[in-house]
Amino acid sequence: MDDKDTVILQYVAEEQSLTKAAEKLYMTQPALTYRIQQMEREFGVPLIVKHTKGTYLTPEGEALASFAKKMRDEMAAMKDYLLNMRSHVKGTLRLGVASYYGLYKLPPLLRMFKDLYPEVQFHVTCALSSEILDLLTEQEIHIGIVRGNYQWQEAKELLHDEPICLISREPIHLDRLPELPHIHYSEPKSKTVRASASTLGNTIREWWHEHYQVPPNIAMQVDAYETCKEMVKQGLGYSIVPGVFVSPEDGLYSLELKQKNGEPIRRNTWMLYRNQTRELAIVDRFVDFMTSEHTRT
């Protein structure tokens, strides 16, 4: 059993479909089936069972997949340790990044870090912030960058914050808001995301209930802030979005939300990591680099 076999079991467990697992592995389904049969012969137990609704790991398969993942993680940690024993910045930095940060902020930062340390490689996962927290908890990544405030007991660095803005095509008075069509951002559903509400969604709801006695007039629900903005540009309603999505070039009316006491509502972006991982030179240098770059801006 090798490292690829571990990934095979992982994808079969996640996708519950040999066809989808084969697509992720860039294999044909017959080749995937043959490799699973070889593992079954090697260990002498059935590893998968097929049902009309999909393909699942047997209890033996789940136990083997869990063991193999643990061994793979330990081997990756050992490789990191050996590469960094002499403080030589080399190897693969595993990052988990909130999707919008990955789109708007991360690419030039990685390019700059790569210029400083050419022997570094990146493994980047872009996902919802709550999913990034799960990856960090499971130690599948070195560093997580999340948007919003999440419970994390180890090291965290505030990279930046941004205002939460009400946007519309024309200026509007806040007293009229409940009667106007609201283009509402609704977080995409994910089978892996924990069943907790979006921290930004909670913040906006708290702001609304502080100011109004009736619910908003939701005309549209969309799953991307860019879509919210484009709908607003067409005069179809107003929306509430993080400030990173609004620029003067959009030509929109923008108003930063404030609590009744006048305090502005901000959204934080945090860099999270385990204290122990700073023993790795690649992690230590990246943390210092990110802190320095965001302090500068």
UniProtKB/TrEMBL annotation:
PROSITE patterns recorded:
HTH_LYSR
> Does Aminoacyl-tRNA synthetase show up as a keyword for this record?
no
List each copy of the HTH lysR-type domain by range. Answer: 1-58
Q: Which UniProt keywords apply?
A: DNA-binding, Transcription, Transcription regulation
Similarity-based family:
Belongs to the LysR transcriptional regulatory family.
- What name appears for this protein in its UniProt entry? HTH-type transcriptional regulator YraN
Q: Which organism is it from?
A: Paenibacillus glycanilyticus
